[in-house]
Every structure is written in structure tokens, then in C-alpha cells.
Specification:
Pfam families: HicB_lk_antitox. By secondary structure, the protein is an alpha+beta fold. The protein has helices spanning about 35-55, 85-95, 105-115, 120-130, and strands at about 5-10, 20-25, 30-35, 80-85. The protein is elongated.
């Protein structure tokens, strides 16, 4: 299970508006925001998991997290460590439905529909059988 902990800066800003901007000093471009503190924490976890998942998928090296004590903060901001588990994102992405368009002869389509065949289910079954996959959800499958 891939589990990470990274410090996040929660910055309320100085313009008197509601909410927080959340940045991760070790992960340039990993930025999110929330209108409330609760939403900002939830969005921080989501952003961090998605960002790290993308890095794993691209075979990029994940940097070591900074020590929260050594992070310089804007006025009014604070640091909190956020936990991210990329295995949950990986499973969700692996089981995400992907639409495929295919072509079959009309006579075959008519016969299959007359028998009430579920095309999606049949195609999944046939592909798994062809690839020798015997499990229902094999999100770690790599060929």
C-alpha cells in the first residue's frame, strides 16, 4: 500500500475573503483550495492523492517531504501534514468504466439482442478469458 505524508500550507490570504489556498512546498503545481477549513483539508487530501498517483504512473521519483518546522509561512498561514494513499486512487482508476465503440454485423446484433445478451458483460468476460485473468477486479494487472 502506497502511503505518503506531506506538509501542506493552509493560507487564508490577506484579502478578507473566506477560505484557504492549500499548497504543498515539495510538490510544485499541487495546489487546491476550500471555502471552509473542513473543505480545504478534504481538498488537500484529494489533490495530494491525485498528484502523487500521477507521479507514480509517470514513473517519477516522489520527493522526500520537508520537515514542517523548516517551512516558511505567509502571515496567518499554518502547516498541517496530509496523508495520501494512492492505492485507493489506483483501484478507483482501474475500475473506472471506459466506453468502447465496436462494430459487428447486423444479423449478429439482432440475434444477440433477441437473446437478451449484455454486450458489455460479454465483452469483459471474453477479454478476461483471452488474457487468462481469473479474478473479478485485477487492478494490479500489468502485462
Amino acid at each position: 500500500m502506497a502511503k505518503y505524508y506531506f506538509p501542506a500550507i493552509f493560507d487564508p490570504g490577506t484579502d478578507e475573503s473566506e477560505g484557504y489556498t492549500v499548497t504543498f512546498p515539495d510538490l510544485p503545481g499541487c495546489i487546491t483550495e476550500g471555502e471552509t477549513l473542513e473543505e480545504a483539508f478534504r481538498m488537500a487530501k484529494d489533490a495530494l492523492e491525485g498528484y502523487l498517483y500521477g507521479m507514480e504512473e509517470d514513473n517519477e521519483s516522489i520527493p522526500s517531504p520537508s520537515n514542517p518546522k523548516n517551512i516558511e509561512l505567509p502571515k496567518g498561514a499554518f502547516v498541517s501534514v496530509i496523508e495520501a494513499r494512492t492505492d485507493y486512487i489506483r483501484e478507483e482508476m482501474a475500475n473506472k468504466a471506459v466506453k468502447k465503440t465496436l462494430t459487428i454485423p447486423k444479423w449478429l446484433n439482432d440475434a444477440a439482442e433477441a437473446e437478451g445478451i449484455n454486450f458489455s458483460q460479454l465483452l469483459q468476460f471474453a477479454i478476461k478469458e483471452r488474457l487468462g485473468i481469473n479474478v473479478r477486479n485485477d487492478f494490479d494487472f500489468k502485462r
